[in-house]
Amino acid sequence: MKPLILTNLFPRKDNPNSGIFITKRLKEYQKLGVDFTAVSLAFRDKGRLLNLLRSLLHKPSEIPLEELEGVSFNPVFVERWLFDVAVQKLWTMKKALENFTDRFAEKISREFPKHNIIHAHGMYLPAPAGVVARKVSEIWNVPYVVTLHGSDVNLNMARRDMRNIYLETLENAARCIFVSRALLEKAKSFGYSGQNAVVIPNGYDPEIFKPIDKDTVRKELGIYKENTHYVGFVGNLIPIKRADKLPEIFGKISKELPNSRFIIVGDGTLRDKILKEMEGLDVVFAGRVPQVKVARYMNAMDVMVLPSRNEGWPCVVLEAQACGTCVIGSSNGGIPEAIGFDEYVVEEGESFEDRFAKRVVEVLKKGYNKNILIERAKSFNWEKTVKREIEVYYQAPWPM
Known about the structure:
globular; Rossmann fold; 17 helices; six-stranded parallel β-sheet; alpha/beta
């Protein structure tokens, strides 16, 4: 069995952690002796005007890395000109999708030898990996599998102009893997039958995410203060993560517990705004850091917050729990499934930020049993995830 892995989610020069859950599962493939080829679906922007536009919008070109943590990625580039972007933005996304996916499929089928199964990660616009996989599978006459990770269903499949393309791709796949039960149910709400669905959550790396004495790691990080509560956030500073509400949530916690220090690990479009709104709070901004250091910051936290407006399956929950750190999250998407404990889930709705901050304060005052969290996380390592994916490959029905 030699899978061709197609992904919209891959490590980039400006952000090596992008798609880290793809890199981690492929490392596990290597350990298990699976012979695979990983292909990054990337764009090469052409023309001075398009480069100027990207510069004005502060969007760097997404340059894929060809190797990370011993995993090789093979970028396949489709050139994108200003006209292509105009079609996408001003005419029709469907037209752009068909154009881009046809070009990717043609290049892949020409540049790589035939594999006996295709596994696509992501259905992200403007060139969903799943659609590309479907088109390559038609050329090679082999089955394809699609893994849905979150926003590809919650945002992209929700678009009426995209619905039929998504449904056609999912229904014709040998299997569709959803990272949470909530994500599967969301896809069903858009008309997906679910007949070829399986739920396989993402995992975590137990070699990186493991308990360290909190005071020790705080001193090593240079953030130690006596008699202080540490509350943190790990993720992209973007609206869907509800990062825009972090200043409000942290401010309310600080009013109840003035001896609180807040840690933010990550970066994004909201960085400057939220840091400005947090003036007066005791904030440690770590920015983007390698996973080894993410684990250290998670260990430094007493509580990690995840107030996201939507999630597929947030790996950061398991990673924090594996460090013995309690995670409090919203009731959206796959967050409750990932957390696993009702008392640490805050229902979406009116006065959410007030209720969320109050729950964090209650947990900080009461404490929690870290050993229960650590034991639960052990059920979700990458080895178990990947072995289930490989089972799916062998169960996939083959074309006649």
